[in-house]
Every structure is written in C-alpha cells, then in structure tokens.
TrEMBL record:
Residues 317-388 form the Fibronectin type III-like domain. Its EC number is 3.2.1.21. GO terms for molecular function: beta-glucosidase activity. Keywords: Glycosidase, Hydrolase. This is beta-glucosidase. InterPro entries: Cellulose_deg_GH3, Fn3-like, GH, Glyco_hydro_3_C, Glyco_hydro_3_C_sf, Glyco_hydro_3_N, Glyco_hydro_3_N_sf, Ig-like_fold. SMART domains: Fn3_like (SM01217). One of its GO terms (biological process) is carbohydrate metabolic process. It holds the Pfam family Glyco_hydro_3_C. It comes from the Eukaryota. Belongs to the glycosyl hydrolase 3 family. It comes from Anaeromyces robustus.
Length: 818
C-alpha cells in the first residue's frame, strides 16, 4: 500500500471516531430553548473565532494535522449562507493592523534587552484588540464566536482582550442578544473568560478547542444533528471572585498559601456564589435523578441512581458523587469529588440506572504532624448531584475512631508559612440546616478492620543487569543524557530534538548497539513535523523548532534569526509529510466526564505512534488548574485531582494497548505557572502536595501503568523537582510503587541565564543522583557534567548504572518487541 493510502485510512478513521464524541466536550452554560436551530440556513457570524478558529493551545501541545477548517468554512460546507462577510473582512483588516503593532512592540523590547526580550517573545500572545466596525444586523440568527488562545511560555492575565472581554466584544455581544431573534455566544477558548455583564445573553456554549474538527462539531450542535453533554471541570466565574490567598506568577517564589482550598474546594467551603460552578453543564434537554439505594461493603460505597430525560430532546446526564469529611484536627473542604458516571444517550422520557462507587480509603486526608494518611473519626456525608453547587446528602457513614490508612514520612520540606484555614461549618444554599443528626438518611458504621493498612519502608531494591555494568563509562553517561547533536543549535527549543523522526521532541542515545527510543509530544495528539526532509544526519523538520502558532506572533526579523539555526534542506531535497490527528485539548477531554472517550483518544494516539515509530508520548499532562491564568491549563484536565488522575489513566490505557507505545505522565509536580517556569519555586505544604498536586499522579498510577514520568521545570520548596530524591525515589518509586522511567522536562535554561535566577539550574548529575533516569533534551555539556562528576566522585558508578540500566532496558524492550 502506498504511504498516502495508509495516511488517508488512518486519518479518516480517526476523525470519524472523534466526530462521534466531540459534542460531549462542549458545555452549554445557558439556554432558552432557541437552539438547536429549526432548519434555518442563513446565519450571521461574528467574533474573532469565526475565521481565526482555534483548535488547541500553543507550544509543545500544538499538533500539526493535515487540514483545519474555520467555523465560517464549516457552516458554508454544510450549506449555510453567511450573512456577515463584510463584517468578517473588516475584522480581518483590524486584526492585521493590531498584529503589526504587537510585533513592533516585541521587537522594541528585544532591542532593549535581547535575552529577556527573546525569552518573553516565545509564547507571547496578542490580546484581542478593540475596534470599530459597523454591525448590520441582518437575518434572524446570530452566533458570536469568541476565541482565546494561550500556551507554553506565558500566562494569561486578567485584562481586557484576554481573561476579560474587550469593550468591543461586550458591546457587540449585547447588541446581538438584543437585536436577533436567536442568538448564541460560543466560546472557542481553552479555559474560562469573565462573562460578567452578559446576563442578557440567554444562550452560551463552551465549544472549547476540539482539535481537527472543532468547527464541524459546532455546526453539528447548532443544527441539532448532535447535542452538547459536557460539564465544567474547573469553576468559571468573574475574575474578582478567584481567591488571592496564595500568590501567582511570582518570578522566584509562588506561595500556595491556600493549601488544599483549590477551585471548588475553596468556593464551596467559603459558600461563595460563582457564575458557573465546577461540574455544571446543561443539555438541550433536562433530567431528573433519584437515589435508589446506597450500600457499604467493606469500605466501598455504592450509590444506585435513576436518571430520566424529562425534556424533548435526546441527551446524556452526568451524576457526581461528593464526600464531606468531618472537621476534626484537620480542617476539611465542604466536599470533594469521589465519583462520577455518565448516562447512556436518553431519548425523551427514557430512564437509565447509574451505579457510582468509591472506596473511602482512596480519599484519606494527610495529617502532616505524624505523616499519616487518615480517615478521622466522625460522620462522612455522601452527596449526589449534577454540579458541585447542586448536591444533596444521600448517606452518612460513621467512623468511630481515627483510622491510619498509611504511614509515610514527610518528605517535601516546609513552605515557610501555614496554610489558610476556611471555616467550613456553613449552611449551604438549598440544604437548610447542615445538621443531619435526625435525618432519615441511610446510616452505616465502617468496620476499621476492613481497611488494609500500610507502612512505607522506602527500601525498594533496583537491579543493575550485568551487561550494563560491562558498558564503558562513556556509554553509561550517554544513556542518561538525551541524544544530542554535538554541534548544538536551537533544534530543541520547544522539543524537536529527534533526528530519527522529524519534529519528535527527543530520543535516547544510540550507544552499545542500542537503537533510539523516540519521544514525541502531546497531549492534543501526536506532535510531529508535518513537512520534513532527509539528509545524511537524519530527518529534519522544515518548519523550525518553534511551533507554528508561536512563530506567527514573532516579528519577521526574529523569525528569520531563529531560522538561521534550523537545519536547511539541501537543494532539490524531497519534502515529505507526516500528518497526525489533533484530538481535543486535555480540558475538553475531561469535560466529557466520559472515561471511554479518553481511552479512545489514547487509542488514536497509540495507533499513530505505531505508524510513525514513536515509542514514548510526552503526555498526558495532569497538572492542576490551581489558577485560571496558567497559560498551559488547556493541556491539563481540571482543578480536581481525582478527575485528573482518572482521565490520565484512561488515556494511558488507550495508548499502552498498542505494542511499543507508552506514555509519559507530566509534569511531576506543582507546575502551575509559566512565568519564569525554569526558575520558580512552588512553595506548598506537604498536605496540599499530597492531597492535591501529587494526588492525580497517584490516582493515575493506581489505575494504569504509565511507562514514564516527566518531572517539572519548577522547584518545590526550593528544590528542583528533577533533583529531588525525595520526590523521585521516596514518593514516586517507593510510595507510589512506580517502576518506569523518570525523565526531566526539556531543560534548555542554561541558554537563557539572563532570566530571573534566584535558584540555580538543575544539573545532569543532580538529576541522576535523585534517581532520575534521563536528562532531556541533553547536550555535550550535560554529558561532560556526568563524566566530570564521576571522576571527582560526586557521582558514584552505582548511581549512574542504576539510571543507565533503566534506559538500557527500555531501549532493548521497544526494539526487541518488534
Ligand atoms: C514542555 C514539555 C514538553 C517538552 C518537549 C517542554 O518545553 O514543558 O511539556 O514535553 O518541552 O517538547
């Protein structure tokens, strides 16, 4: 079969599979019954997302598909007449004017301070400009598509044109809502925007960024061919509602003083009204649900509930289970998510029965005073609902005295402050008195003996195979450093250092007769170069190492300077192509609350890894949406660690079904801001780390066996995560029982030493001493660093061999398996 034939087969197949599910990622925030349309075929399209539709964020998470159509094109293709061509043409002109100004500004900054200027320019994103264009309100139906993009290298801001709407956007949206018979505001964003002031808008849909068929999926939902059925996995509210207890975006030290009160854990506990709560989303229809039974077997709670479609359109409902723990010595959030299930598609009047379950021992609290995971004594209230602001108690479980489920050691040092405490003894809306003593709820008493208790001993033993011991010290050093081009260059700025597969982020060294292990990015699909050529040294992207959407924001002269460092195709070189499927961004996958879909996404990526010979996918990414401004939140799933862990595990299982296709879960851990990301310390209490920031990784590792873990750029409490033996050996390998590869994130910081630098960069030796296995993307200096420290005895041969042997085994495994 010729290559293009293979391409067509897998691409079409993957797009068709995704199409079935994309509407499940969308969240309907408001509805008045005007949508879906009733056969109308003339439509007025407004907003920056109509022609500049965004399929995903920028940076290493960007994926190069064969094609991408805009929302305007998708409506046209489906036979709609677009009434607003004049407005759209005028908008294009305004946008180009603003972009020119923006690029000039970047250039001036670079001329003022070249290093900082260049660093800040990579990932810089233009805010939506203000403009004056006449709106002639033609037709009966209008859609305003508001888009925002963000990504690697810069955070979002609470300013107009980014998190806030511009005055122009607000005015147009309000006038459309007033002037049109039917109006829908569509949000083509990777995360929240501030929707305050738009109370008159009665139809709002979070389209999100759904990869290759974002636009077609919108047309399907507007026309009524399909229906939205997602719910938010992060709280959407006005900018002034988000707490400022801890800071965000500090260049050196970000203090997570809010402790465990992240996202809904904060809003629900403080009983603060929010615009669109965690877990919230509507459908084209409505549902009723009722608890049928609750049971406790050992420490496993099972809730059986019925769901009925009580509207006139088909749909799917998601039920969510929360747990309120007793406040004892530890203050506890009002509730935490412990389970969820999505119904099958329900026709009007149809009923489904849903089973939700969870184990209490999976939801312990961390008591730092004596380093124990505990279930404290008292009443545990189980709540069922369809958003975090709409839950009702359905059972009470009593624990008579404190159960120590796991004994560990504190490992992560002190952040230098006490976490905030929030009074959670509040009355919640719709629930009346929270005192349930005399309620008729089913009550259970937990038998403490049914919980398996564990004491961690930190004594896991790792074998070094004889054949690794026999290797030369140079070969061993090469194994723990990513394969590098001795001549250097900018090939790995944003992860495209592989010369075996063009555009793949990196690979392991070809020493000792080993073939390379190829690593390529995600999470929104498999990131490869779509155009490449081959020469004596291998395969090279013709598109440079900076993702295309990021290049577009750079001044022409800077693009030219960067291009000087890129490998050049020889004259008459054949330009070849590799196309992969852009899947929805991480947040959108989680918004489906459909684990099966997450596994399907993994399956698609795993298949394409097989086609292009990639072994390690650098995804899924499961950092917590600690702050809505983090530029890379779009890659991550949620503000909640349980959802994050469940979705990362489902994606992992989908990928790893395929022979020789493995995942790398990242970024371990507390990687929650982009500003000065190489050198900022996330200062976090041991409790918040263990209950929030490490928890998703732990849940993922319980439900799947990811082959690799990538450490983060940031430090935790003043120690680089990649150099923390406590994090890598004690917690990841011993406590979480992880047996795979630990790699660093792509450390290219030494190129930019002019950055704010309170903390020194991590070194290859530091990483290996912490039991990290490979320092990526690697350079000659890093390789020398290992050999020098071996010589001066700062690194022992055994330390080096331990890491080298894990890479050696992986390289053997992926190539022998063929
Ligand atoms: C990103 C990682 C990515 C790596 C390789 C880094 O800049 O933080 O998420 O996997 O590059 O591209």
């Amino acid at each position: 079969m010729v290559r293009s034939q293979i391409d067509d087969d897998y691409e079409t197949k993957h797009v068709n599979i995704l199409d079935e599910y994309l509407p499940e990622c969308m969240v309907l925030l408001r509805k008045n019954g005007d949508f879906p349309l009733n056969g109308e075929k003339s439509i007025a399209l407004y907003g920056n997302g109509v022609r500049k539709t965004i399929k995903g964020g920028t940076g290493s998470g960007e994926v190069n598909s064969r094609y991408f159509e805009t929302i305007e094109e998708a409506f046209t293709k489906e036979g709609y007449e677009i009434l607003t061509k004049k407005y759209l043409d005028n908008y294009d002109k305004e946008y180009e004017k603003a972009l020119k100004k923006f690029k000039n500004h970047i250039l001036v900054e670079i001329l003022k301070n070249p290093i900082t200027g260049i660093m800040n320019s990579i990932g810089a994103i233009m805010n939506e400009p203000e403009y004056k264009i006449n709106i002639d309100s033609t037709g009966d139906v209008a859609i305003y598509v508001l888009s925002r993009v963000s990504g690697e290298g810069s955070d979002r801001t609470f300013v107009k044109g980014d998190f806030l709407l511009t005055d122009t956007e607000k005015n147009i949206i309000l006038s459309l809502a007033r002037g049109y018979k039917k109006f829908m505001l569509v949000l083509n964003t990777g995360g929240p925007v501030d929707l305050s002031g738009l109370e008159e808008v009665e139809n709002i849909l979070v389209l999100s960024q759904l990869g290759v068929n974002t636009s077609k999926a919108l047309v399907d939902v507007i026309s009524g061919k399909k229906y939205p059925s997602g719910k938010l996995t992060t709280t959407w509210t006005k900018s002034s509602d988000y707490p400022t207890i801890g800071n965000f975006g500090d260049s050196s030290d970000t203090n997570y003083k809010e402790g465990i009160y992240v996202g809904y854990r904060y809003f629900d506990t403080a009983n603060m009204e929010v615009m669109f709560p965690f877990g919230y989303g509507l459908g084209y229809t409505d549902f009723n649900y009722n608890v049928q039974s609750v049971n406790l077997v050992n420490d496993e709670v099972t809730v059986q509930a019925s769901v009925q479609n009580i509207g006139n359109f088909k749909g799917k409902e998601i039920l969510e289970l929360y747990l309120s723990k007793p406040n004892t010595e530890l203050d506890e959030p009002y509730q935490v998510l412990v389970g969820f299930e999505k119904s099958k598609e329900l026709a009007p009047s149809e009923t489904d029965s849903i089973t939700l379950n969870f184990k209490l021992s999976d939801f312990t609290s961390y008591y730092a005073r004596n380093a124990t995971y505990i279930l404290d004594k008292g009443d545990y209230i189980v709540r069922l609902g369809n958003s975090s602001r709409n839950t009702e108690p359905c059972a009470i479980i009593n624990i008579e005295s404190r159960i120590v489920v796991k004994q560990v050691h504190n490992k992560l040092d002190e952040p230098g402050f006490e976490d905030v405490k929030i009074d959670s003894n509040l009355v919640h809306p719709g629930e009346g008195e929270e005192d349930l003593t005399n309620s008729n709820l089913p009550r259970f008493t937990l038998d403490p003996n049914c919980i398996e208790k564990e004491t961690i001993t930190y004594d896991k033993v790792f074998e070094i195979p004889e054949e690794v011991k026999q290797l030369s010290k140079e070969d061993k050093a090469h194994l723990v450093i990513g394969a590098f081009n001795p001549s250097g260059g900018l090939a790995s700025v944003i992860g495209s250092a592989s010369t075996t597969v063009a555009g793949a982020a990196g690979e392991t060294a070809t020493v000792a007769g080993l073939s390379p292990v190829i690593m390529a990015d995600g999470p929104a699909g498999l990131r490869l170069a779509s155009d490449y050529y081959t020469d004596r040294d291998g395969n090279h992207s013709t598109q440079g190492s900076i993702p295309i959407s990021m290049q577009q924001m750079l001044p022409g002269v800077i693009q030219w300077v960067f291009s000087l460092f890129n490998p050049k195709p020889p004259k008459n070189a054949e330009i070849k192509h590799q196309y992969t499927t852009a899947i929805p961004i991480g947040t959108a996958i989680a918004q489906t609350w459909n684990k099966e879909f997450a596994e399907i996404c993994g399956d698609i990526v795993g298949t394409e890894m097989g086609i292009f010979n990639v072994h390690l996918w650098l995804a899924p990414a499961l950092n917590i949406h600690r702050n809505v401004l983090c530029g890379r939140n779009y890659e991550y799933y949620s503000e909640d660690p349980f959802i994050s862990g469940i979705f990362a595990a489902a994606v992992t299982n989908g990928v790893q079904k395929h022979k020789n296709a493995y995942v790398t879960i990242k970024h371990f851990a507390a990687n929650n801001q982009e500003y000065n990301r190489y050198g900022s310390s996330s200062n976090v209490s041991e409790r918040a780390l263990r209950e929030i920031y490490l928890k998703g990784f732990e849940y993922c590792l319980k439900r799947s066996q990811p082959k690799a873990v990538m450490t983060s750029y940031n430090l935790i409490n003043g120690v680089h995560t990649s150099e923390s033996k406590e994090l890598t050996l004690d917690i990841l390998r011993n406590e979480f029982d992880f047996d795979g590869i630990v790699m660093t994130d792509w450390i290219v910081a030494s190129m930019f030493t002019g950055q704010v630098a309170k903390y020194a960069n991590p070194s290859a030796t530091g990483v290996v001493k912490a039991t990290g296995d490979i320092y990526m993307p690697g350079s000659k200096d890093d390789y020398n660093n290992i050999l020098d420290n071996l010589k001066n005895k700062k690194l022992s041969m055994e330390e080096l061999e331990l890491s080298a042997s894990r890479i050696y085994k992986l390289a053997k495994e992926v190539h022998n398996n063929n």
